[in-house]
Design goal:
mainly alpha; about 80% helix; about 0% strand; elongated; transmembrane helix; MFS_dom; Major facilitator superfamily (MFS) profile domain-containing protein; membrane
Length: about 110
């Protein structure tokens, strides 16, 4: 049995995406762009799912957000290239806001 020396498996997977999509050296700024687009998804999701919750009910929107987050989260894992990855991460960011906002409001009632 070999003893692993060095980084954890999660770091190896994280590093795999950087090398697979060539996000090093001249394209290193794409990493920040991906994170920024994800955060913008959180912003859009808070507005979108907040308005939907007022109109259709918090429980329905919470369950919808969880279902979408599950499907999109799996899809992110199998993204074939960086643009698809970023688009799916934006969509996951929107659903995370839907879960957080509605779960918080339902939890305090």
């Amino acid at each position: 049995m070999r003893k692993q020396i060095g980084f954890s498996n999660s770091f190896k997977l994280f590093a795999f995406f950087f090398y697979q999509w060539d996000l090093v050296c001249s394209k290193a700024g794409l990493n920040s762009l991906g994170s920024s687009i994800y955060m913008f998804g959180l912003l859009v999701g808070s507005v979108l799912f907040g308005a939907m919750a007022d109109r259709y009910g918090r429980r329905f929107v919470l369950l919808l957000s969880i279902a979408l987050q599950t499907v999109l989260g799996v899809a992110v894992a199998f993204a074939p290239n960086f643009p698809v990855y970023v688009i799916l991460r934006f969509a996951v960011g929107t659903t995370i806001s839907g879960v957080i906002i509605n779960a918080f409001v339902l939890g305090i009632n």
